[in-house]
Amino acid sequence: MEKQKTVGFLLKRVDCNDGVASHCKTLIRGLRAAGWRVVLITGLVNYDAGSEDSFQALKDLSEDWIVFEDMKPFLPTWASIRRIEEIVNKYEISLFHAHGYSMLLLARILKIFTGLECVATFHLLIEDENSTWIKSVLRPKIRKYQIYLRVFAPKAFIAYSSEIERFLIQDLGFPKNKVRKILAGMDTNYFRLPSSEERQKAREKFGFEEKELVCTLVGRLNWIKGHDVLIDAVRQIRKEFPEMVLKCLFAGSGDREQEIKEYAFVSEDDSHSFIFAGYLNDMREVYWTSDIFVLPSRLEGFAFVVAEAMCCGTVPIRTPAAGALDQIEEGKTGYIVPFDDAEALSKAIQKLANKDFRLQMGQQCAEYASSVFDRELMIEKTVELYCECCGMETTESLKA
Question: Are residues 117 and 235 in the same domain?
Fold first, then answer.
């Protein structure tokens, strides 16, 4: 049997409660099954009590995890370069996979010393071109991105959403033949439709009654995720339709937790409407207990949690940030609402108040998501790209 292949993941930092860490876990787990080892080479690692299991999972899945507390991707030290060179030799690393454009300079320097190519995933948070955010935050940086990529371009870019693919090719001018769209994949055997017993058990665990309509937002407790928009929408529904028993579950932790809770809890009615569950390791139960999944983000790269929720039959409502084009067919697999529009979000939630309609759409979500966002498909395409970039035989690699 051919020896295992090894890829070195380069990350500037690791926040164990965010989507990048979650994506890396899924990717590493799938690569291991395909006969590849992963060595993590990263900067500082951040986790709290809630996300400690996520940290441990990354550690257990990786062949090794080398942390540079003084990681400086734009000005790497000679000692760090030599240390990574030693790691390359020790584990016979075949290529690097840089997560984030900031690691490309380091990858180019490492190529001089090791001869290894680099594949990169662009985790930039991207939003709709009509949003004021892109005009004020992203557009002024595009010229810098273009110059940087011209000098430190990787062998290939992985775009895990159509919006990122468009951004790389149209906005940054990266060659089309060097961009590979590989949609983010989930473990569709794990994220699946629940049985009636499983759903009932999940509802009981979180204390929800069957008559209650549960809207859930999973994400870091940061204003960028739009918690305030959902809170405003729930208050609006509560005012206009007091007979609707609507509950809002927030799952996640983050640096704006106290501010968001202060925004949520103003009145006694708020204390009945909003539940903060903190960071949860098993999100499947969160999706199973939910009727509607809401993500009114102002910025996204793909929104993995939306795809996971869809696989579980939970109907999503989200903004047109990156990932929306691949996830939502309006009125069939969810709804897209404008940025910062609590009224539009309120109306979308109202459309899904009808149980029969919601269940029908949930079935459509699960069928679509389980076929499109399949982890095995993502791994197959990723391994093909790895092999292509470092001159391996794909078939032999998959058999290893």
Answer: no
